[in-house]
Amino acid sequence: MTRIIIEIDDNKSAILEDKAKKFGLLPEQFVTASIEDLISQPDPHLEVAMRRVLSKNKDLYERLA
Fold first, then answer.
1. Pairwise CA distance, residues 39 & 52, whole Å
2. Is residue 1 in some structural domain?
3. Residue 33 within a domain
């Protein structure tokens, strides 16, 4: 596992702690969950390409169904 150390100003740290407390988490847990959520989101370019292919081949998919 990789450890990443960041520095944030005191105001942002206080906000982070408040938000983490609202979810019953430690600030480190809140940041980890936020990062996991961020990186699990699909690439917008991939989604656009996928929609284009599905739209382009819609008739074929309907015939195959």
1. 23
2. no
3. yes
